Amino acid sequence: MSRRLDLRLSGSGGQGVILATIILAEAALLAGKKAVQSQAYGPEARGGMCKAETIVSDDPIWFTKIQTPNFLLALTQQALDNFAGNVSDDAVIMIDSSLTLPKCLEGKKVYSLPILDTAAEKVGRAMTANIVAVGAINKALNIVSHEDILKAVHMHVPKGTEELNTKALLAGEALLD
Amino acid sequence: MGKTVLMQGNEACVEGALAAGMRFYAGYPITPSTEIAETASVRLPMVGGRFIQMEDELSSMAAVIGASVAGVKAMTATSGPGFSLKQENIGYASLAEVPCVIVDVQRSGPSTGLPTSPSQADVMQARWGTHGDHPVIAISPSSVRETYDLAIRCFNLAEKYRTPVIFLMDEMVGHLREGIELPDESEIEIISRKMPESMDGDRPYKVKEGEYVPAIPPFGSGMRYNITGLIHDDTGFPTNSNEEADKLCRRLLEKIEKNVDDIITYEEKYLDDADTAVICYGGTTRSVMEAIEKLRSEGVRVGMFRPITIWPFPEKQIKELSKKVKRILVVEHNYGQLVREVERCADEACKIDFLGRINGTVIPPTEVYDAVKEEA
């Protein structure tokens, strides 16, 4: 399938959205696709608004920054309000269900999912929200196989947390069922 | 070729440096270069090397010089504000002929500026940051794989010419992750500094007639000699002789000047039938190439010239290019730095235009596209 995915993931620093984009890029490489990942965040290491991006394509990727994403994930209201204004007409939006959808996104394909609650309650660790999101994103956009995304997760999470993160990934995928 | 791995530009810089033989790193972390220090701190102990986080940038540069004087391939990394602080000791390494690599992952300035935002405004600092007439080599990568390859080249040139080499990266490439295949170790050329034929004598800075680079042995290897930032004679001890000063300064500058064909590398794309050439370097290339591919698909006769070696500047190549094309568009993330060099070297008949940006964001391909189209 020849399509280009311009994925923009946003939230606050510390939520792991950068790692989520790294895992998505790694998974795309494992599946034989081209991928680039980049990030931007404020000078404060935690709590600042954070944006990270992954481009997945079958063709070579020259320009590595996303101009108009065709997928946006927002885990905080501040990030959602900030990035909502710039998405493609056919963009898919994924937000945490605790957030309020801005008017400009009405009419778009929107997944409002309990990502943060799932991480905190079902998985048992709030900090796995990024992996829950990775599971949900991959399922929603059908980027790579479950095997590839699982392998990419295991390549990038701290040793000893594989089981916990597998649980988070499965919980994220289950949100789309 | 091995398998494809996802790697960040800053990580590739360290991996390339290690492949080249780097065994010492001293630095003071600063965004957007911090991952270089982080990666070096993890990787160096694995290969028997040393990592030191120093108290500031001045001491980091001094430590790198000390390690290199002891014969170890050494590197430091920083960004604009720290690059300013390293300049005094870069000049020392230049005059004392101490091989070393200084990475500057450029960010928006002046001063502490926009710490996480891209820029290419240290081009002139790389050339003239330290005072006095001094030789300089600066190299700029445009992809993660090239960062790996050119980190090796920086060390090779530093060792071959016994001079500090500036690895002029930018945030766009430093913070970029992409899939790359690393070369097999057997494919990598590694150059190490020349050793003297004998440890006898006391003239480490002496060069043979027609040669430019002295074979200075590492401290502790047998020869007793002096190292100083003062003008010195072949023994390394200071001298006030104007004749010696002229001889030393000329040799320092000529060791680069006489070898530009060995030092200068560049990339050309679609220039054969081009009316317009876009000149760019580093991360900006990604924007330019996306625009050029689109323009070419529409039949616009545009090509790209990319200096990989920024300093010494490819004067001869720019002169030739300016005779071939009607218009040159220089695209860089600053207020206009390398464009002045292009203007200096280009033929008068060639029109030189400039596209720059200083707000901390990246020049999008659409802007390059429009700037080319304006007159195409």
Q: End-to-end span of chain A in angstroms? A: 23 Å
| Fourth CATH level, the homologous superfamily of chain A | Pyruvate-ferredoxin oxidoreductase, PFOR, domain III
> Could you tell me how far the N terminus lies from the C terminus of chain B, measured between alpha carbons in angstroms?
41 Å
Name of the CATH architecture of the largest domain in chain B: 3-Layer(aba) Sandwich
Identify the CATH class of the largest domain in chain B: Alpha Beta
Count of alpha/pi helices of chain A = 6
Mean pLDDT of chain A: 94
Classified by CATH, the class of chain A is Alpha Beta
Cα radius of gyration of chain A in angstroms: 15 Å
CATH architecture of chain A: 3-Layer(aba) Sandwich
Q: Beta-sheet strand percentage of chain A?
A: 15-25%
Helix content of chain A: 25-40%
Low-confidence stretches of chain B: none
Multimeric status of the protein: heterodimer
Average pLDDT level of chain B: 97
Shape of chain A: globular
Helix content estimate of chain B: 25-40%
Shape of chain B: globular
Summarize this structure briefly.
The complex is a heterodimer of chains A (177) and B (376). Chain A is an alpha/beta fold and 177 residues long.
Structure description:
The complex is a heterodimer of chains A (177) and B (376). Chain A has a single domain (5-174), classed as Pyruvate-ferredoxin Oxidoreductase, domain 3, CATH 3.40.920.10. Helices cover 38% and strands 22% of the residues of chain A. Chain A has helices at 17-30, 77-83, 115-123, 129-141, 146-156, 162-174; strands at 5-12, 34-41, 49-57, 71-74, 92-96, 109-113. Chain A has a six-stranded mixed β-sheet with strand order 2-3-1-4-5-6, sandwiched between helices. In chain A, strand 4, helix 2 and strand 5 (92-96) form a beta-alpha-beta unit. Chain B has two domains: 4-187, Thiamin diphosphate (ThDP)-binding fold, Pyr/PP domains (Rossmann fold), CATH 3.40.50.970; 266-373, 3-Layer(aba) Sandwich (Rossmann fold), CATH 3.40.50. Chain B has 13 helices and 15 strands. Chain B has helices spanning 9-20, 34-43, 57-69, 80-96, 123-128, 144-161, 171-174, 242-257, 260-263, 284-297, 315-324, 338-345, 365-373, and strands at 4-8, 24-27, 50-53, 74-78, 100-108, 114-118, 137-139, 164-170, 177-181, 266-269, 276-279, 302-307, 309-311, 327-332, 351-356. In chain B, strand 14 (327-332), helix 12 (338-345) and strand 15 form a beta-alpha-beta unit. In chain B, helix 1 runs parallel beside helix 6 and helix 3 (57-69) packs parallel to helix 4 (80-96). At the A-B interface, helix 1 and strand 2 of A face strand 1, strand 6, strand 9 and helix 10 of B.
